[in-house]
Amino acid sequence: MLNRKRFTQEGLAKEQWAEITTSHVEGFVGVSVAVSISVKTLTDSWLTARFEFDDPVSRDLTIELPRFPLLLSPRKTENFTIYVTSNIEMDTYLPFTLYLKDSSIDGDAEYKGNVDVNFKLPEIQALSCDGVNKVTFPPIQEKSSLTKHFVLISDCPVDLQLELSIPMGESMFVIKSVQEIKKNDVSKVLMDRSGCVEEGPVKNKKGINKQLCRLSSGNAIKVAITFTSPKLSELEMNDQMATFNGTLSVAMIGINTVLKAVSLIGSVGSASLAVQPPVGKLLLSNEPTILNLCNTGTITGVWAVKFRCKIGTEGQFPFKVSANKVEIHPGSVNQLKLVYFGPHDTLNEGTLILEETSNGNIATIEIAGGSDRPKSFPIKTNYNNMSWVRAGRKELSLKNSTNQRIQIRCQIMGDGFMLDSPGVESRGTYVLSFGPCECRPLPVVFAPNSCLPHAAALHLVFDKNSDYSRKIKLHGCASNDSVRWSGLMTYGDTALVRAVSRSNIELKLFNKSSGPAFLSARVHFNLQYRFISADAELVGQRRVMGRRSQHTVVLRVPWPKLERRARSSDVTALATVTILTGPEFTRRRI
Q1: What are the two backbone dihedrals, phi and then psi, of residue 187, each rounded to the nearest 5 degrees?
Q2: Could you tell me whether strands 289-295 and 319-321 are parallel, antiparallel, or unpaired per DSSP bridges?
Q3: Any residues with CB less than 8 A from the CB of 571 and at least 6 apart, and which?
Q4: Which terminus of the chain is more exposed, N or C, with fewer CB under 10 A?
Q5: Amino acid 152: pLDDT
Q6: Residue 193: helix, strand or coil by DSSP?
Q7: Exposed / middle / buried, residue 149 (Cβ in 10 Å: 0-12, 13-18, 19+)
């Protein structure tokens, strides 16, 4: 029996138990590829099989085998699938051994085979509006950020697991976002020049320097890269223009090989505004004034045009500008037209502000329109001349004829007069403020220091412009009550005289002063006795009295006519004689 079994084993050993067929495999690095192995059983027995790849197998290969042992049916073909993943490019044969066992005869057999594999790196292209495999940022201001887009495409028929990374030392470039798009949208992204968005000054924040994504077959990846410009002075760079380079690496997840390196180029400069020719203060009129603005920097700058008025209602500016925003390229000159449309007799001052939109830098130009020289003196007075016959106080009425707040300086040039207002300076100057169309009194006091005539002038000067002024003439002479009644009963300046029938009425006056004095008298009869006014006579009614002299004023009335008409029962005053006296100097001036 044992001899028969040995004979059977030796016979089967000379026969071929199975045929092995493998397929040629082409794949991409990093992508798992299915390898089909066909085993055809040539015996009538059930066989068990297992695979084993010969050592050494490369460390860059990963092979997934089916679960062993495998059961092979008699006279049938079985297909088995293994999965091979390579991390490097290779074109080689992978030798393996198929171990077969026939349990019915307790026999074993070994068969050799090879798997032909060819792994290639997938081809990836980076496309942007600047070209292939590069992204160039236009020059921007310091401490600003700019975002641009590019797309990653591949003709690989399988899905790729990609890793996008930027070295840590190149922190000026960061990955902002990653988005999978259709290939039909690639041209739209490349043609969209507006995708370059200037974001202005940025805060210090940590950007993303590594991003994982999946590139499906037939699609593309849209990548947004943000370039943040540094402060050149912080890098100890004195140049007005600086260029910074970076690299974005595209690799497959788990593979150290870089599939594509995208060059990142960013430029940093500055925009500087200059006025040609330089102006200190710009005086505007109703005709357009042209202001030439030049960009002396290295990059294009955009400036917002604003106004700030020193005087005026908030939000109402008497200035107009041809543009609210100006964009100037390096070395170029733009014209800005300014017009003043406010009143010409009022001075309006303000500031033209040119604020750079990227970093907030401000350039200012002082502007003015109109004039502080009014057409006429803005204060109206009720007198051009003021005179005094005795010491005293009078008021001059002043009115502001404009609708603005103004100030005037008041000063008296001459002796004997002064301003009677609080706040008068020691040199006699007084500042008076007026609201729109306001009236104010100005008290003037005549306080002579001698009996001689006094003459002075009150000067009213516009505080903003001393070329505009008005002069009020002041005249005065102190009478000192030099002429007095003589021998009459008086009560203050009033004397009582009793008329004696059939006699003239005499009024005696005495000049006690050391200078000549004049007198002027007139009579006013009572209503009851007015019928004799035509026949009455006032003698000595005008007279210049010498110093320390006497004079008599005589009133002659027709007594017979008066007595016939008078009523004896009614006792009333006959008449009132008013005498005006004063220094002779005053009369001569009048």
Answers
A1: -65, -35
A2: unpaired
A3: none
A4: N
A5: 92
A6: helix
A7: buried
Residues 474-504: pLDDT tens digits? 988 776 566 777 767 777 778 888 888 888 8
Query: What's the rounded Cα separation, in Å, for the pair 101 and 42?
Result: 13
Please return the burial class of 134, using the count of CB atoms within 10 Å of its CB with bins 0-12, 13-18 and 19+: middle
Which residue type, as a one-letter code, is found at position 29? V
What pLDDT is attached to residue 195? 55
Chain centroid, CA 544 distance in Å? 80
**Token code pair at residue 205:** 């924040």
The CA distance from 408 to 398, in Å, is 11
Q: Are 146 and 226 in contact (CB under 8 A)?
A: yes
Token look-up 């051009």 returns 384
What is the pLDDT, as a whole number, of residue 58?
66
Strand pairing report for 362-369 and 281-284: parallel
Torsion of CA 254, 260, 261, 265, to 10 degrees: -130
Residue 327: which residues within 8 A CB-CB, separation 6 or more?
Answer: 300, 301, 302, 303, 334
Q: Any idea what the Cα angle at residue 43 is, between residues 39 and 48, rounded to 5°?
A: 55
| Neighbouring residues of 6: CB distance < 8 A, sequence distance ≥ 6 | none
Q: How far apart are CA 227 and CA 141, in angstroms?
A: 11
Q: Which residues of the chain have pLDDT under 50?
A: 1-2, 4-5, 7, 313-314, 569
Q: Are strands 301-309 and 61-64 parallel, antiparallel or unpaired?
A: unpaired
Is 379-476 a CATH 2.20.25.90 domain? no
Domain ranges for the chain: 2-120, 124-268, 273-369, 379-476, 483-589
Fold of 273-369: Immunoglobulin-like (2.60.40)
CB–CB of 580/520 below 8 Å? yes
Tell me the fold of 124-268.
Immunoglobulin-like (2.60.40)
Distance of CA 22 to the CA centre of its chain: 77
pLDDT tens, residue by residue, 19-64: 888 888 888 888 888 888 888 888 888 888 888 887 655 677 888 8
CATH of segment(s) 483-589: 2.60.40
Distance CA 509, CA 550 (A): 6
Token digits of residue 39? 């085993």
Side chain identity at residue 209, one-letter code: N
d(CA 110, CA 20) in angstroms, rounded, equals: 11
Domains 124-268 and 273-369 share a fold: yes
CA distance 167 to 178: 17
- Whole-angstrom distance, CA of residue 13 vs CA of residue 8: 9
CB 501, CB 442: distance < 8 Å = no
Residue 300 tokens read as 């294009």
The pTM for the full model equals 0.54
- Give the CATH fold of the 2-120 domain: Immunoglobulin-like (2.60.40)
Dihedral sign of CA atoms 153, 155, 159, 164 in order = negative
Q: What are phi and psi of 333, to 5 degrees?
A: -125, 130
Q: How far apart are CA 29 and CA 123, in angstroms?
A: 11
Q: How many CA atoms lie within 13 A of 47 on its CB side?
A: 27
What pLDDT score does 2 carry? 47
Q: Which two tokens stand for residue 387?
A: 């005179």
Q: Are 367 and 348 in contact (CB under 8 A)?
A: no
Q: Which of 169, 177, 165 is nearest to 221 (CA)?
A: 177
Instruction: Measure the CA–CA gap between 97 and 20, rounded to whole angstroms.
Output: 10
